[in-house]
């Protein structure tokens, strides 16, 4: 009987987690009226500012799985006092940051205080209904509110703040028909370098959060594209009346389809915003608005775009990717008027000085006017050609390494190479024809096509920190270990500087693998058993990813190898490839090297902070060649 009574008391306290109406806070300054809403980390009440007689909203920090309401109905208790105290202090810092925000479309925070063993902040009460309560809206009406929210996001992003909980329920429409963004309960603040300063528990709303938000490390760096994903999901909801699919389901292969009644033009915007890869989304609010404005009104003659075009960034959409020319030649750049003016003035000065000694003043101005144009254009053309040649040389300084005629003279199936007392293995890959891509993956993995690969060698493991330090004399990695972890925080350009020095030390011709070589090796080459991941169908057995990494890299070759004896081609760190990012062609190819130009280079294999879906052998990702991140590494290849 006693046990039953204790159980009943516990159930009562767990269910009565909010403060009863009529309770006073801050020495009677505020009176609670009713509960407005409750989330995983707090409770929002309607309250009364007793001195002003003004209705306000009051947010109480109350993580429901950690805090308990005490018997007096107001105070809270928690078991781990040190952790809870730190979180309360972080909550207060966030509230004070919010109090500094002043914007027409953002709710104002007017007071912050501690009481009842927890913390509170007070906001203006927005009289009206949320977009969640408004139901399905006409697209023009919906986009009016969306533009207002976008303006609010631009403002907070300029202050290095991410809201991280954009959804219809957090957008109120006030009595002036104005959208007001509320609930900054899980927002994060970042420093000038884009590193996170807020350390409160990461939260998310499943249908409105991208996959990176579901792991703390995924939002460790400032990225407006995370909020833009949620904005796209919000558009999906308020214009269709349907809840958008959860991003993890999209990552698992579910396809985002256009809801009945949503125009094709708006679906293109939503699809871009809800791309799984953050770099495929608009990277700023301004870029989002450009995308929104670039879509013509629906008139039955929608512009045609393939699904592959949906996965390209706005910059890539402006580039027509051409096949790599066999012997590319420098192209003259489009003439730049200011530059021509500069060279024309220079030509005029030279002409004036020269002809002043030959002709009288009457002829000078006429001759200079003629000569200035001819000489200026000539000088500019010479300058343009030289600049184009230099750019061409920079872009192609390593191309000879990717020629099939370059050989290292390797003959063994496993070649052991030593440099400065560090030894690494290169595995021989027997060439064959394989099916590259996937019909069950993302749009940029299609179409599946035949690719023929010649024999080559590839690193048994990712390049380790030990090897990098033996060649470069330093270790740039964020996650330093005993030298056997993969080197990371290296750009595509850094990799080629390493390769240049390695080749000088060894007399060999190492390089990065092409994307086709990488996928062929990851699949197991001519021994492939068609696994989803490199080496098996169980990601935990073959790779380090967000589900088992503990938010760090691990020593190479500690998981099961694939059919060719290669380790970590799924997980640990993403691996740079040679190729520019481009769309697949349906035709057959032999030793392809990707498009001839682009803005981002391919990375493959997923990493320690990515979901399992990113570790699939056909999954494609990409990054700027100058980007350094603690999930970017590489492995070597050679003929």
TrEMBL record:
<dbReference type="GO" id="GO:0005524">
    <property type="term" value="F:ATP binding"/>
</dbReference>
<keyword id="KW-0067">ATP-binding</keyword>
<dbReference type="InterPro" id="IPR011009">
    <property type="entry name" value="Kinase-like_dom_sf"/>
</dbReference>
<feature type="binding site">
    <location>
        <position position="59"/>
    </location>
    <ligand>
        <name>ATP</name>
    </ligand>
</feature>
<dbReference type="InterPro" id="IPR051043">
    <property type="entry name" value="Sulfatase_Mod_Factor_Kinase"/>
</dbReference>
<feature type="compositionally biased region" description="Basic and acidic residues">
    <location>
        <begin position="299"/>
        <end position="323"/>
    </location>
</feature>
<keyword id="KW-0472">Membrane</keyword>
<feature type="transmembrane region" description="Helical">
    <location>
        <begin position="361"/>
        <end position="380"/>
    </location>
</feature>
<protein>
    <submittedName>
        <fullName>SUMF1/EgtB/PvdO family nonheme iron enzyme</fullName>
    </submittedName>
</protein>
<dbReference type="Pfam" id="PF00069">
    <property type="entry name" value="Pkinase"/>
</dbReference>
<feature type="domain" description="Protein kinase">
    <location>
        <begin position="30"/>
        <end position="298"/>
    </location>
</feature>
<dbReference type="InterPro" id="IPR017441">
    <property type="entry name" value="Protein_kinase_ATP_BS"/>
</dbReference>
<dbReference type="Pfam" id="PF03781">
    <property type="entry name" value="FGE-sulfatase"/>
</dbReference>
<dbReference type="InterPro" id="IPR042095">
    <property type="entry name" value="SUMF_sf"/>
</dbReference>
<feature type="transmembrane region" description="Helical">
    <location>
        <begin position="337"/>
        <end position="355"/>
    </location>
</feature>
<dbReference type="InterPro" id="IPR005532">
    <property type="entry name" value="SUMF_dom"/>
</dbReference>
<feature type="region of interest" description="Disordered">
    <location>
        <begin position="298"/>
        <end position="332"/>
    </location>
</feature>
<keyword id="KW-0812">Transmembrane</keyword>
<keyword id="KW-1133">Transmembrane helix</keyword>
<keyword id="KW-0547">Nucleotide-binding</keyword>
<dbReference type="GO" id="GO:0120147">
    <property type="term" value="F:formylglycine-generating oxidase activity"/>
</dbReference>
<dbReference type="InterPro" id="IPR000719">
    <property type="entry name" value="Prot_kinase_dom"/>
</dbReference>
<dbReference type="GO" id="GO:0004672">
    <property type="term" value="F:protein kinase activity"/>
</dbReference>
<dbReference type="InterPro" id="IPR016187">
    <property type="entry name" value="CTDL_fold"/>
</dbReference>
<dbReference type="InterPro" id="IPR008271">
    <property type="entry name" value="Ser/Thr_kinase_AS"/>
</dbReference>
């Amino acid at each position: 009987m006693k046990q039953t009574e204790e159980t009943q008391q516990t159930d009562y306290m767990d269910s009565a987690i909010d403060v009863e109406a009529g309770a006073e806070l801050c020495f009677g300054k505020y009176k609670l009226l009713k509960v407005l809403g409750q989330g995983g980390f707090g409770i929002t009440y309607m309250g009364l500012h007793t001195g002003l007689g003004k209705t306000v909203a009051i947010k109480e920090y109350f993580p429901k799985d950690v805090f308990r309401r005490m018997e007096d109905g107001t105070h809270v208790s928690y078991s781990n006092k040190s952790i809870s105290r730190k979180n309360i202090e972080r909550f207060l810092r966030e509230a004070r940051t919010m109090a500094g925000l002043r914007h027409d479309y953002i709710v104002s925070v007017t007071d912050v205080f501690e009481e009842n063993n927890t913390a509170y902040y007070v906001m203006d009460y927005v009289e009206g209904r949320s977009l969640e309560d408004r139901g399905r809206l006409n697209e023009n009406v919906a986009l009016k509110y969306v533009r207002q929210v976008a303006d609010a996001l631009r403002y907070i992003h300029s202050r290095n703040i991410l809201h991280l909980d954009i959804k219809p329920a957090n957008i109120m429409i006030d009595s002036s028909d104005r959208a007001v963004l509320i609930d900054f309960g899980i927002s994060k603040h970042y420093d000038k370098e884009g590193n996170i300063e807020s350390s409160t528990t990461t939260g998310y709303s499943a249908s409105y959060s991208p996959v990176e938000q579901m792991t703390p490390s995924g939002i460790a760096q400032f990225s407006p594209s995370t909020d833009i994903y949620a904005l796209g999901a919000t558009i999906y909801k308020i214009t269709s009346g349907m809840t958008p699919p959860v991003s993890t389901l999209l990552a698992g292969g579910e396809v985002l389809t256009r809801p009945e009644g949503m125009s094709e033009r708006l679906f293109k915007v939503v699809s871009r915003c809800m791309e799984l890869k953050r770099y495929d989304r608009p990277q700023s609010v301004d870029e989002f608005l450009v995308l929104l404005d670039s879509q013509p009104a629906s008139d039955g003659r929608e512009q045609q775009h393939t699904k592959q075009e949906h996965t390209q960034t706005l910059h890539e959409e402006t580039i027509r990717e051409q096949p790599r020319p066999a012997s590319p030649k420098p192209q003259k750049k489009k003439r730049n008027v200011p530059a021509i003016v500069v060279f024309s003035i220079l030509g005029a000065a030279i002409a004036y000085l020269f002809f002043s000694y030959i002709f009288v003043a009457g002829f000078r101005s006429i001759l200079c006017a003629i000569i200035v144009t001819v000489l200026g254009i000539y000088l500019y053309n010479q300058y343009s050609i030289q600049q184009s040649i230099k750019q061409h040389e920079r872009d192609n300084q390593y191309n000879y390494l990717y020629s099939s005629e370059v050989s290292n003279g390797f003959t063994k199936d496993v070649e052991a190479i030593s440099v400065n007392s560090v030894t690494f293995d290169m595995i021989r890959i027997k060439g064959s024809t394989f099916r590259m891509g996937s019909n069950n993956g993302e749009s940029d993995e299609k179409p599946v096509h035949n690719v023929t690969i010649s024999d080559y060698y590839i690193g048994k493991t990712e390049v380790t920190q030990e090897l990098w330090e033996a060649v470069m004399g330093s270790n740039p990695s964020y996650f330093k270990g005993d030298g056997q972890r993969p080197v990371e925080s290296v750009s595509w350009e850094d990799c080629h500087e390493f390769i240049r020095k390695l080749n000088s030390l060894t007399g060999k011709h190492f390089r990065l693998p092409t994307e086709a070589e990488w996928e062929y090796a990851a699949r197991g080459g001519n021994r492939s058993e068609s696994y989803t991941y490199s080496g098996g169908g169980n990601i935990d057995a073959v790779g380090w990813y967000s589900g088992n990494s503990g938010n760090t890299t691990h020593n190479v070759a500690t998981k099961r190898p694939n059919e060719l004896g290669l380790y970590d081609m799924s997980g640990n760190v993403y691996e740079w490839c040679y190729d520019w990012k481009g769309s697949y062609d349906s035709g057959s190819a032999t030793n392809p090297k990707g498009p001839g130009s682009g803005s981002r280079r391919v990375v493959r294999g997923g990493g320690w902070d990515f979901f399992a879906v990113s570790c699939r052998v056909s999954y494609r990702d990409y990054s700027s060649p100058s980007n350094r991140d603690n999930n970017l590494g590489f492995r070597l290849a050679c003929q």
